[in-house]
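Hi team, as promised in this morning's meeting, here are the two structures we talked about. I've kept the exact order from the run log so nobody has to guess. The first one is mostly here for context; it's the second one we should focus on when we meet again. Sequence first, then the predicted structure tokens.
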Amino acid sequence: MKLKVNARLDADFMPMALVYRDFTDRAKKANGQSLVIGIERNGGFVSVFETTVFPDGQGHDEENLEFVERLVKSLLWIRGGWKVIIAGSRKIYEGIDKAYKANGSRKFDFDFMAGVYEKEFTVEYRDIEDAPVNKESATPVGRHLDGCRIGFDAGGSDRKVSAVVNGESVFSEEVVWFPKLNADPQYQYDGILSAMKSAAEHMPRVDAIGVSSAGVYIDNKIMVASLFLKVPKDEFEKRVKTMYIDIAKEFGDVPLEVANDGDVTALAGAMDLNDNNVLGIAMGTSEAGGYVDGAGNITGWLNELAFVPCDYNKNAMVDEWSGDYGCGVKYFSQDAVIKLAPAAGIVLDEALSPAEKLKVVQGLMKEGDERAAAIYDTIGVYFGYAIAYYSLFYDIKHVLIMGRVTSGEGGVIILEKANEVLEKEFPELAKKCVLHIPDESSRRVGQSIAAASLPEIK
């Protein structure tokens, strides 16, 4: 595959955006057939995606299935859902149905989605004449800055908290912690409570608490969250699911709002830019995504871009948690920096934590080390092609990046290379889509300040 902008440290990179463009162009020239993919989630809401594939039984069945499997994977983790509907190709349906079983190749996704939506995961076939149609929802979010508020951002390597009084941050704190390594949820409880108490000490009172955290949340309950990776299932049900609700009670009967950290990233961007159609991406322990639509609302989508494929290369690095290859978590997180370090000629001490390894590379970047620059250059190329792929699923005017990986000069390089990819490879998208990186202070603690605006004080 010929790229107009090469990934310096990854010669085998196969961007999903180019694969999609090439596949659909070839399928159309071969008198391809329409395929409609529907994803149903809670409330009966359905997201629909239409594409073109090669006709069944014409020598492209395996290629069709491999292509559509990546699309279904992308749609599930962007939109979220417990049912996949395939309309237009029974052969493709049969392959997807086989993959999404308890013993199938996508068993992680099968189990995860069933757990989040608390329904048995199913794959359904329909004729193209009976294809599903869109049924979407969106709700207003955040932008409340009155009163004395705590904003908490729960990262996998560090936790950040801000005290916000009438829209102004009067205190911010960042503390390293290791929630993913602790099986006793008391560790996470104590860390969250300690952070919030630190913020409360800098305000006359606490009127509301907003939380930004990786994972899936319904009615402020923790449905799935990587922060509690080691916590046994029975302990999760008893002590984790209502943890933010329980901690908020320590501060009295105050409004609480918990949101996915990606949506809070997008909210931070929309507030700062005073505009909408914002895709927010936080590059930290993992890749968090969020979206604010054209009306300034969040969509109810999952937006878990960490598990969305960005590299079609089957030999790409596998994510340890999901067991899948080429997904965003290994391209837009501290794992990406660590993954690329050997190719750049940087040897990292294996005794260091992932966050400490990232700091080593960031230190080299500050010293002007060209090896470190090559890492960020490569991530920038990854990112430019990923934005083009994400634009198939989101209407994007602005992309905002935040998080630990974007700190310092490395973040500037990421944006420069991403812009180069868009201008050379996707000029029409480059004209309508602007990439942003906030100032250093906002980049590190902006999530917690935006989180503070989530709850409404009644």
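And here is the second protein, the one for discussion:
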Amino acid sequence: MNEKKRVVFIVNPISGTHGKEAILKMVREKIDPEKYEFEICRTQYAGHAELLARQAVQEHVDVVVAIGGDGTINEVGRALVHTDTAMGIIPCGSGNGLARHLHIPMDTSGALQVINEGHCHLIDYGLIDKHPFFCTCGVGFDAFVSLKFANSGKRGLLTYLENTLHESLTYSPETYEIENSTGTVKYKAFLIACANASQYGNNAYIAPQASLTDGMMDITILEPFTVLDVPSLSFQLFNRTIDQNSRIKTMKDKKITIRRQSEGVFHYDGDPVMGGATLEVEMVPAGLKIVAPEKKTMVTSDSSLNILQHFMEFFEGKPIATLSEKHRQLLKLNRNLLRRLAKRP
């Protein structure tokens, strides 16, 4: 008879927008007792998940399951790289970008079924300024919004959208140099995203062609755009076609250097941090064991419609006199786009 495997569930009580007791109750009910012995650990402060995961590695635990969002997953993952301990995920954060890329179900019961099946895969991870990331990292507007989101005191998709919409039409693009394996190029850019996985979260595909197992990062550069470009960019972001937009430039590489005019914020897996004017970004192939579905099935989503509906709800509630001319233009364009989306078969 095979010896049972040991599993440690690490839960972040404050990730996402919902409490975790119902999830923990389901863990106790659904985890396969024939396969696993398990324990549950609750994080008490930022960085605690990493310490708990490192302790699990020292104790030769077979699987550490992160219950939380991409921030919790990052903490757990960086403790498990280049070890024999695999990471599992029960997604319950605001975006769940890595879980969605891996086709891990968003419902707890489905995610636990994936853990019970126990299929392990090796995936790549990245480093930006020596900070590990598993999903995406970057500079520019997405890092700026991550900082705003972190300081907002509220969680959830709507809070993220509000911060994005407030800032998107007044944010000033910066000039960057990117040194890659073929030379150096200069861009004036709204953002530069370096992706291991294909999306930020919430099915927002910033790098639709990205793979977790090719040893490469997909770099997406969004050049300056006008208010007239926003509806098509929004639509393509959620329809996995943003790389076809004329405002987008893409490249693949194992390592790049980003140079900007001054120090500032960057993000890794949505967590903002201050860094220098020069940032090194590189991929580390096959560095993390992860529990994920054996067969990947494409999940369709109406996120493109939902994101615009959230946009409309946010601005429709504001007196029209308080909106800038750019916001009024964007409101009109998105009304028209929503009508077309709603008529899709």
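Starting points for discussion:
The mean pLDDT is 85.
DSSP finds ten helices and 16 strands in the chain.
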